[in-house]
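Lab meeting tomorrow. Look over both lines:
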Amino acid sequence: MIDDGIVQVVRGDLTRERSDAVVNVMYLAGDHLALTPTGRALFRVGGPQLEEAVASLGEFGVGQARLTSGFGLPAGFAVHLLLPSIAQANLARTGIARGVAEAVTVALRSGAHRVSLPPIGPTATQPLTESIGRVMLGVLHDLAFRADALELVRIVCPDAVSYEAMVRAIERGLE
């Protein structure tokens, strides 16, 4: 585990996080949603009620986040974030920065104090890069300084590749 005092980066399973809210990232790929492996796992553990709750949210725009109960997840809430699937690095960083801020803000409005999220790559199948990791960290630090209610943010990395990218991002500083 890496802990810079504001953000913890851990290797683990987001479906087991006992935080107040977990973030489920979905990508808009053409005219359909693409889930990450972590997103599919959240739906599997959250159960059919979680899938039904997300379906009942209706359409929401790219970059927007919506809240549901966590249902079968240990976390009380799930924040569902819709991002565009963008392969261009500069556009991806901007979209991810806005999306991370939106998701954590939605969690805070629900009364959450501890939020866990996955490392976010530019597409559902493209892994996080160090530069995007620095963007995520910058947004999370900014939110932590502005929101007294935010006690802990955990970036839960399911694999060594994303964990190492986040470690390098912390070591090399914020973007």
In short: The chain has one domain: 2-172.
